[in-house]
C-alpha cells in the first residue's frame, strides 16, 4: 500500500493515523488535505478532517536525503538559527498568553459561536466589577441567543465561564444577559413563586415546579423566604432538579 485516505478529529490526527497504516514516517510521504476538521457547536455541525497520504517514490526520498547533507559548520549554523527561531516563537507565545485579556477572549468566543448560529450582528458590552464580569449581548436575533426559557443563554454562560477562566490569573464569575432577559426572567419567577405558594396554601398540597437551573431555584427560594405559611426545598438530580413548595400545616 502506497496511498491511503484517512479521517480524524483534526488534520494532524488524520495524518498520524495514516502514517501508522502505511508504516511510513512524515518525511517519506506527501499529504493532501481534503477537508479541514470542524468542532461544531453543542454537537451540531461537526465534521472530521480528511487527508490523502501518498508514500513518495524511493528515488525522490534518496534525492532529498542527499540534498539535505551539508558540511558540519553549515549544520551547526542552521541549528543555531532554528534554536533562535524556536526561542523567539516560544517567547512570543508566552507573551501572548500572558497578555491575553479574559474579557476579550470571551467576546471573541461568543462572536464565533454567534456566527455558527447564523448571527452576524452580535454586539457585546462588558461590565467588570471585581471578580464579576457581566457581558451584555445585543442582536436582531436575540431569541436565538436566549432559547426556550433561557436554555441556550445558560449553556453559553457556562461555556464562556470556562473560556474566561482559561485565560484569567484568578477565578472570575461570568454572567451573560441578552436585552435584560435576566431581569425580566427574575421578575417572572418571583411572580410565579407567589402564585404557586398561594396555590399550595389554598389546596393544602405541595406544588412541584418545572426543572430549573440552581440560580433560578434560588430566586424563588429568596422570593418566598419571608413567608411563614410555606417552605421550599429542591428535589431530584440535575438537569431535572426542581423546586417544591409545601404548605405548613
TrEMBL record:
Please indicate if the UniProt record lists Lipid metabolism as a keyword.
no
Q: Which GO terms describe its cellular component?
A: cytoplasm
Q: Name one GO biological process term.
A: peptidoglycan biosynthetic process
**Per the annotation, which location comes first and is thus the protein's main one?**
cytoplasm
* Pfam short name (any one): KH_KhpA-B
Q: Which CDD domains match?
A: KH-II_Jag, R3H_jag
Under PROSITE patterns, the record lists: R3H (PS51061)
Q: Which InterPro entries match?
A: Jag_KH, Jag_N_dom_sf, KH_dom, KH_dom-like_a/b, KhpB, KhpB_N, R3H_dom, R3H_dom_sf
The subcellular localization recorded is: Cytoplasm
| Keywords from the named record | Cell shape, Cell wall biogenesis/degradation, Chaperone, Cytoplasm, RNA-binding
Q: Which GO terms describe its molecular function?
A: RNA binding
Q: Where is the R3H domain?
A: 183-249
| NCBIfam families, A to Z | Jag_EloR
Q: What is known of its domains?
A: Has an N-terminal Jag-N domain and 2 RNA-binding domains (KH and R3H).
Q: How does it assemble?
A: Forms a complex with KhpA.
Q: What function does this protein fulfil? A: A probable RNA chaperone. Forms a complex with KhpA which binds to cellular RNA and controls its expression. Plays a role in peptidoglycan (PG) homeostasis and cell length regulation.
Q: Which family does it belong to?
A: Belongs to the KhpB RNA-binding protein family.
The protein's name is RNA-binding protein KhpB
Organism of provenance: Lysinibacillus telephonicus
Gene for this protein?
A: khpB
Amino acid at each position: 500500500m502506497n496511498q491511503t485516505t484517512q479521517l480524524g478529529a483534526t488534520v494532524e490526527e488524520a495524518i498520524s493515523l495514516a502514517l501508522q497504516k502505511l508504516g511510513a514516517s512524515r518525511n517519506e510521504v506527501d499529504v493532501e488535505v481534503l477537508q479541514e476538521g470542524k468542532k461544531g457547536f453543542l454537537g451540531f455541525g461537526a465534521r472530521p478532517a480528511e487527508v490523502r497520504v501518498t508514500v513518495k517514490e524511493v528515488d525522490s526520498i534518496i534525492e532529498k536525503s542527499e540534498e539535505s547533507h551539508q558540511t558540519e559548520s553549515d549544520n551547526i549554523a542552521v541549528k543555531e538559527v532554528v534554536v533562535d527561531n524556536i526561542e523567539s516563537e516560544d517567547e512570543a507565545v508566552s507573551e501572548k498568553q500572558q497578555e491575553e485579556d479574559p474579557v476579550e477572549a470571551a467576546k471573541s468566543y461568543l462572536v464565533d459561536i454567534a456566527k455558527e448560529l447564523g448571527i452576524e450582528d452580535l454586539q457585546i458590552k462588558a461590565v467588570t466589577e471585581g471578580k464579576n464580569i457581566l457581558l451584555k449581548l445585543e442582536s436582531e436575533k436575540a431569541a436565538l441567543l436566549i432559547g426556550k426559557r433561557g436554555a441556550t443563554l445558560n449553556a453559553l454562560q457556562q461555556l464562556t465561564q470556562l473560556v474566561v477562566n482559561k485565560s484569567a490569573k484568578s477565578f472570575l464569575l461570568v454572567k451573560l444577559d441578552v436585552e435584560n432577559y435576566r431581569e425580566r426572567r427574575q421578575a417572572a419567577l418571583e411572580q410565579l413563586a407567589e402564585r404557586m405558594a398561594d396555590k399550595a396554601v389554598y389546596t393544602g398540597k405541595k406544588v412541584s415546579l418545572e426543572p430549573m437551573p440552581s440560580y433560578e431555584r434560588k430566586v424563588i427560594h429568596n422570593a418566598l423566604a419571608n413567608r411563614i405559611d410555606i417552605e421550599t426545598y429542591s428535589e431530584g438530580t440535575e438537569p431535572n432538579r426542581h423546586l417544591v413548595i409545601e404548605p405548613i400545616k
